[in-house]
Write a structure and sequence with these properties.
Length: 493
């Protein structure tokens, strides 16, 4: 009798397991994952998010966030700086920066409020960069912000404050590059596409059980399962991010693991009743269920599908450095306007100091952006691309990241126009990438080219504007404004 009961219990358990699996919407296959709607409506409305590169690499504040790698190469300035400031990398390794990454001035509520005032609708940290240091309270690795360094759950505390402000959350993952793929493959020790180099006698080659978890010196199969996928599952389960975003080199992760991640995240989101998004930077996840990201670059024309650009508030490094130069406010506003007109979303990076302070020059740009959006947000948030995204002499280059220096060199004037439209298509917002002189004529040529019938033209505060339709376009008499960098005219059709 007992044997029969055990058999029946086993069969029931098996059937329940099958039922549980069958109840999940997504299987770990590209075909099944394609059922996911890649573009949540809230993200199409949001337009602006903020994230930040902040970690132990912020302590040396030299070069950029790749300091953990370059400090090991004798021909690099980072090595020379490290030698002069801290000593040999074999004696003072990257792990020795962790206790110095104190973050004592980090205030999750204050940061979240700053991001809200900047006009962001979602925000979050670089959850983990290539360096292997996790910014959440992790059980998988001791190298996490809750146990070492700041000894705070940076991601968790910030998410909680963002959610209080009805903001969405994003966690970005760059850890695909952390694995030393040659560590257990001696023939591949010349492989240079991992973040930490294999240099005998340096900490990244250490067999120490704890150090290996920071430096990615782990057998590949164990790393893929326990570290790459495990860390993602940990953040998904504990923090329920609205967006998971991946940096480059995701193609280094076997396809089966990428499929398992996506199925796990999307099935969990179904249970949370959340519309989530997966963002990727290379052709390493199908766009049937993910969104493409351009690093430090934008699209030359509007796309039918939603896209994202991640760009930094500085002109150089993503993390804080002692010589960091910050972009003028006008450049940041113009990038947001151009991106939104072309059906894009901006993910703007800031660079806090190791002690958790956000420098004033970065704050000034964020608050300036927020002030412009507070006045002109009707032309940005919840808009959609119009029949023509742009007109004027200044055109964005093609080429993506490879063209990033050309994007930095762009100079817009009042001759450059970007268009957005209300969801119902009844209102067009003509955004001038400059401030025309009051009383001067501004010509919106697309209206003539497309034979658009206009009912009324006004400023966003409701004041009527003198206008006329000509053979060359919609002619508007510019009004005086206190706008910075760009001004908006509302055109009702």
């Amino acid at each position: 009798m007992m044997k029969r009961v055990v058999i029946l219990w086993a069969v029931a358990a098996l059937l329940n397991g099958c039922a549980s699996r069958n109840a999940e919407k997504y299987e770990p296959t590209w075909k099944s994952l394609a059922k996911h709607e890649a573009e949540p409506e809230w993200l199409k409305d949001a337009k602006l998010g903020i994230y930040f590169h902040w970690g132990p690499y912020s302590v040396p504040a030299y070069g950029n966030e790749w300091y953990p790698r370059w400090m090991h190469f004798e021909n690099r300035n980072e090595y020379k700086h490290h030698l002069a400031t801290y000593g040999k990398p074999s004696e003072f390794g990257y792990h020795d920066f962790v206790p110095l990454f104190t973050g004592e001035h980090f205030d999750a509520a204050e940061w979240a409020e700053l991001f809200r005032k900047a006009g962001a609708k979602f925000a979050g940290p670089v959850a983990e960069h290539h360096d292997g240091f996790s910014m959440w309270d992790s059980e998988i690795t001791p190298w996490n912000a809750a146990d070492k360094g700041p000894k705070q759950d940076i991601l968790g505390n910030l998410f909680a404050e963002l959610e209080k402000r009805d903001m969405k959350t994003i966690a970005t993952f760059h850890h695909a590059r952390n694995l030393q793929r040659y560590s257990d493959k001696p023939a591949e020790k010349g492989f240079q596409d991992s973040h930490y180099p294999w240099i005998e006698g340096q900490p990244p080659t250490s067999d120490d059980p704890e150090l290996r978890l920071l430096y990615g010196n782990v057998p590949e199969e164990e790393w893929n399962e326990t570290i790459w996928l495990g860390k993602l599952k940990e953040v998904i389960d504990h923090y329920q991010p609205d967006i998971i975003w991946f940096d480059s080199w995701l193609d280094r992760i076997p396809e089966t693991y990428r499929q398992r991640f996506a199925a796990y995240y999307l099935n969990q989101a179904e249970k949370w009743n959340k519309d989530v998004a997966i963002i990727r930077k290379q052709n390493d996840l199908p766009l049937t269920f993910s969104i493409n990201d351009h690093e430090k670059s934008r699209e030359p024309k509007a796309l039918k599908e939603l896209w994202m650009t991640d760009d930094t508030i500085s002109t150089g490094s993503w993390c804080y450095t002692q010589d960091l130069k910050i972009k003028p406010l006008s450049m940041v506003i113009h990038a947001v306007v151009d991106t939104v007109a072309k059906n894009g979303v901006v993910l703007l990076n800031i660079s806090p100091k190791a002690d958790g302070t956000i420098p004033q020059d970065q704050r000034d740009v964020l608050l300036g952006l927020g002030a412009w959006l507070n006045k002109n947000g009707e032309a940005i948030y919840s808009t959609r691309p119009w029949i023509n995204a742009a007109e004027g002499p200044t055109a964005e280059p093609e080429g993506g990241f490879a063209a990033r220096k050309k994007f930095m060199a762009l100079k817009y004037t009042e001759k450059d126009i970007r268009y957005t439209a209300s969801k119902d298509g009844k209102t067009v917002y003509a955004i001038i990438m400059g401030i025309p002189k009051a009383g001067s004529e501004v010509l919106f040529k697309t209206f003539a080219a497309e034979k658009i019938a206009v009912k009324r033209v006004s400023t966003l505060n409701g004041s009527a504007v003198d206008w006329s339709m000509t053979d060359n376009g919609l002619s508007v008499k510019a009004v005086a404004t206190d706008d910075t960098a760009a001004t908006v005219y509302k055109v009702e059709l």
